[in-house]
Specification:
Layout lengths: L1 E5 L4 E8 L2 E4 L9 E2 L1 E4 L5 E3 L1 H7 L6 E3 L11 E3 L4 E3 L1 H20 L6 E6 L5 H13 L5 E5 H9 L8 E8 L4 E9 L2 E10 L4 H20 L13 H17 L5 E6 L1 H4 L11 E6 H25 L9 E5 L6 H11 L3 E2 L7 H11 L1 E2 L6 E2 L3 E7 L3 E7 L1 E2 L3 E8 L6 E6 L9 E3 L2 E7 L4 E10 L10 E7 L3 E6 L3 E8 L6 E8 L4 E2 L1 E9 L3 E2 L5 E9 L10 E9 H4 L5 E2 L4 E8 L5 E7 L4 E3 L16 H25 L6 H19 L3 H22 L5 H19 L5 H19 L3 H19 L3 H12 L8 H16 L3 H13 L17 E2 L1
Parallel strand pairs: 1-10, 10-11, 12-17, 14-30, 17-18, 23-29
Antiparallel strand pairs: 1-2, 2-3, 2-4, 5-6, 5-7, 8-9, 12-13, 13-14, 15-16, 19-20, 21-22, 22-24, 24-27, 25-26, 25-28, 28-29, 30-33, 31-32, 31-36, 34-39, 34-42, 35-38, 36-37, 39-40, 40-41
Helix pairs in contact: 2-3, 4-10, 5-6, 5-8, 8-9, 12-13, 12-14, 12-15, 13-14, 15-16, 15-17, 16-17, 18-20, 19-20
Organism: Sphingobium xenophagum
InterPro entries: ATPase_NBD, Heat_shock_70_CS, Hsp_70_fam
Pfam families: HSP70 (PF00012)
């Protein structure tokens, strides 16, 4: 049996596909979907799904939920009340195990030929790899991935009367939002483009209800501290409040008003005056809709973007298919459809469609390798007899008809061909001239067996009867596009003025699978027996943003001199370094680093460090990480606003609203999920600001502002610089203004980058600057990859500073930078140049 699993943030589902078609496997209490929740008691006993959900109000500290949002991080789910700490991958594995037990409960022992687990389109490499890891932990070996909107698109065509056209899949789940632009032809799905927002879903609506409805009600009725939402004494109150908010949200899909009620026994906490706290808070649909409309508008903006990027209008789209629990809310369906001017298609079950599409896709793959590969859509046979006959045919089709092409070198005289098939199909003998194309009806879903007989004029068979099988499927996917651009960090520019940029290996939208090679050179000489290494750093790159600081690192190959060189052996600067890459149609990339001068190719796991991209959002350091990213975004927003003050750019107000929302979220929350949401959104805001600044109409104002700000900074420190550096800076500044004046934007940006590089290279030689940089980095422990290593470097650097050993402090700065998260934080003065040059 082939298995499709929708591993959701709030709910999960499992569907099987065998020769009899698709089958949804229900939970043990008869529900279509399994709540993605896990409960542990103090003795370590575990409950999953509805039973865990039932315990969430009684013992919220023992329940893990929403862990899909922490996949691909180093955060843990700490269930303090149960004395348990598990990873998001371990929690997800338990959900998968429970889903598989649902299959066993209905069918007994069944062999899983292959399984597909769906992921959001916005999932990065680390999250995708974490999902595969969770599947393996659950005992699934033959398992692959599929983006949720593609699965939904395939399910939307299952049994549909209309199997052609262009439509949008609007997938709003518990934790993520995806939209796909899909073209269907006779049941064959082509995903033209898709986009997603990692941290937008029903759980965000729940949080809005808590922050904007329940919290103000509590403040009006009880004496509570200003930071009540972050205090441990009230953790239970707000955990249960969030569950009640979710219930109210669901109720308001079918009712106009409700009351959110928590008894004092539910809350088990007192206010500052010793009064027992309870909640009895009214909420109506209109109020709820007003609270979440801005988030729905964010999703609509993404739908408009995907249409604009593909030169389409609403008139070019037939319908919107709504997927995911929150999409059942009236405000979502009505507001989205009305705003876009596209009719809604409500025939698909939004809760199970993704799992159904995944099962359809699972059947379309050969499972002779771990992650599977696509089955061929074409088949052929050749047979020798009195004639040489060749058959070319459609091996897989989502339509009710297929084609069979027959070719043969025939003897003189007439020949005939007959085809018989399922449901009594018989073409009868028809003339055959040696080149014939026949339509074949596919009467049944699944395998359709046909027999082909060729006879001579006398009725004698000219070759053995041939048998072929054509599989009719509910839908097929013609191509799976890469959802992210994957790039490598390289240093670019003249030797003394280099800056880091990203060079794509594979670009978003490339049909998968794909492979290729990119050639680079080594920046610095490595000598065996001495300290030294070069990193090949891999990133998910945002569209139009080539600064590594503004993109997401997903892993690194760390190649140390001592591991690849004998003592005294040299690998000279400028030596070729080739990166061979391949991305399978699961969207997972694999790289091999070739060093031709050493005759060496490196792809071993011990060189690859994916954890470089992982973040830990737990505790105070997780909060500091989020605050730092928000501060960086606020600074970028202020600078851009200042540069474009005369232009009244409408994007600024939108980005300001989004950033303020995240700042308030962080201030009012103490959980890892909120910190990750704030951190990701801050990065996305910075990426949008980078694109806004680089827009043709804005470049002149932005570059003049950057140049003026730089000159102000130089003027404050000019007395610390030597005459040669000052003259070089003045010359570059003059050249930059000339380039801006003639609108040579590429040259102007290159010169401004050279200005910064020249300035900071000069400052780097100043003891005061190095001591200041050391102090800044020492205080940013949250940004360190290895916290213990950071502490030891700081201790060493402080000893050097006390002894006046500036070179020792400089070495400590270098080591802290090498132990730092690759894109944290975006100050130019602390950039570590890539070990590769373009």
């Amino acid at each position: 049996m082939y298995i499709g699993i929708d591993l959701g943030t709030s709910n999960s589902a499992i569907v099987g596909r065998d020769s009899e078609g698709l089958r949804l496997f229900k939970t043990d209490d008869g529900r279509d979907v399994l709540p993605s929740m896990i409960y542990f008691d103090r003795r370590g006993h575990m409950l999953v799904g509805s039973r865990a959900h039932a315990q969430a109000e009684l013992a919220p500290g023992n329940v893990a939920q929403g862990f899909k949002r922490l996949m691909g991080t180093s955060s843990h789910l700490d269930l303090a009340a149960a004395g348990k700490s598990i990873t998001p991958e371990e929690a997800s594995a338990e959900i998968v195990k429970t889903l598989l037990r649902q299959v066993e409960a209905e069918l007994g022992g069944v062999e899983v030929t292959g399984a597909i687990i769906t992921i959001p389109a916005a999932f990065n490499q680390m999250q995708s790899e974490a999902t595969i890891k969770a599947a393996h932990m659950a005992g699934l070996e033959q398992v692959g991935l599929l983006q949720e909107p593609i699965a939904a698109a395939m399910a939307a065509l299952e049994g549909a009367a209309r199997r052609d056209g262009r439509f949008l899949v609007y997938d709003l789940g518990g934790g993520t939002f995806d939209v796909a632009l899909v073209e269907a032809t006779s049941g064959s799905v082509t995903v033209i483009a898709h986009e997603g927002i990692n941290m937008l879903g029903g759980r965000d609506f729940d949080r809005v209800i808590v922050d904007s409805v329940i919290r103000p009600w509590l403040d009006a009725h009880f004496a509570l501290p200003a930071n009540v939402t972050t205090l441990p004494a009230y953790k239970r109150l707000f955990a249960v409040a969030r569950l009640k908010a979710e219930q109210a949200k669901v109720e308001l899909s079918t009712k106009q008003d409700t009351v959110i009620f928590l008894s004092d026994e539910d809350v088990r906490a007192e206010d500052s005056d010793g009064e027992p706290i309870y909640v009895e808070c009214p909420l109506d649909r209109k109020t709820l809709e007003g609270l979440i409309t801005d988030r729905i508008d964010d999703s609509i903006d993404l739908c408009r973007k995907i249409l604009k990027d593909n030169s389409l209008s609403h008139e070019d789209i037939d319908r919107i298919v709504f997927i995911g629990g929150p999409s059942k809310m009236p405000i979502v369906r009505e507001h989205v459809s009305t705003s876009l001017g596209i009719p809604a298609d409500l025939k698909c079950d939004p809760m199970t469609a993704v799992a159904r599409g995944a099962a359809i896709f699972a059947e379309s793959r050969e499972w002779d390798e771990a992650k599977g590969r696509r089955k061929s859509a074409r088949g052929s046979k050749a047979v020798k007899g009195e004639i040489d006959l060749r058959l070319d045919f459609t091996a897989r089709a989502s339509d009710q008809r297929a084609r069979l092409k027959l070719r043969a070198n025939l003897p003189s005289g007439g020949c005939k061909v007959r085809v018989t098939g399922p449901e009594g199909y018989d073409s009868g003998f028809a003339p055959f001239d040696g080149d014939e194309t026949l339509p074949l009806p596919l009467a049944v879903m699944g395998e359709n067996a046909f027999s082909i007989e060729v006879v001579g004029e006398d009725g004698r068979r000219l070759c053995d009867v041939q048998h072929i099988v054509i599989v009719r499927t509910e839908a097929t996917a013609t191509a799976i596009p890469a959802t992210q651009t994957v790039s490598v960090k390289v240093a670019k520019g003249p030797a003394a003025e280099r800056r880091n940029v990203l060079v794509p290996l594979i670009t978003k939208g490339t049909p998968l699978p794909a492979q290729g090679t990119e050639n680079f050179r080594l920046r610095e000489t490595l000598i065996g027996g001495e300290e030294g290494r070069f990193d090949v750093e891999i990133y998910n790159q945002a569209e139009g943003v080539d600064d590594p600081v503004l993109n997401l690192p997903i892993g690194v190959f760390r190649i140390a001199a001592e591991e690849v060189l004998d003592p005294g052996q040299r690998l000279q600067a400028g030596s070729p370094i080739n990166i061979h890459w391949q991305m399978d149609d699961n969207g997972l990339i694999a790289c091999e680093v070739e060093i031709p001068d050493l005759g060496l190719s490196i792809q071993q796991k011990n060189f690859y460090v994916p954890e470089v991209g992982h973040r830990n959002f737990d505790g105070e350091e997780g909060a500091e990480l989020a605050r730092a990213q928000l501060d960086s975004a606020r600074q970028a927003l202020t600078e851009t606003q200042d540069a474009l003050r005369q232009k009244n750019a409408p994007e600024i107000s939108t980005l300001t609203r989004r950033l303020t929302r995240m700042e308030e979220l962080l201030e009012n929350s103490a959980d890892a999920e909120a910190r990750r949401a704030a951190t990701e959104e801050a990065l996305h805001i910075q990426q949008e600001l980078a694109r806004l600044r680089d827009a043709p109409d804005n470049r002149h104002a932005v570059m003049l502002r950057d140049l003026a700000a730089f000159e102000d900074a130089v003027s404050e420190l000019v007395e610390k610089l030597d005459r040669g550096t000052v003259e070089r800076l003045n010359q570059l500044g003059h050249s930059a203004r000339e380039a801006i004046g003639r609108e040579d934007w590429s040259k102007a940006r290159q010169i401004i980058d050279q200005l910064y590089a020249t300035f900071y290279n000069a400052l780097y030689e100043q003891p005061e600057f190095i001591l200041g940089m050391f102090a800044d980095l020492a205080g940013e422990r949250y940004a360190a990859l290895d916290k213990a290593l950071h502490d030891s470097i700081v201790e060493r650097g402080m000893a050097c500073a006390e002894n006046g050993d500036i070179d020792g402090v400089r070495a400590a700065v270098r080591d802290m930078l090498n132990n730092r998260m690759p894109n944290q934080v975006g100050a130019k003065k602390v950039a570590v140049l890539s070990g590769l040059i373009a």
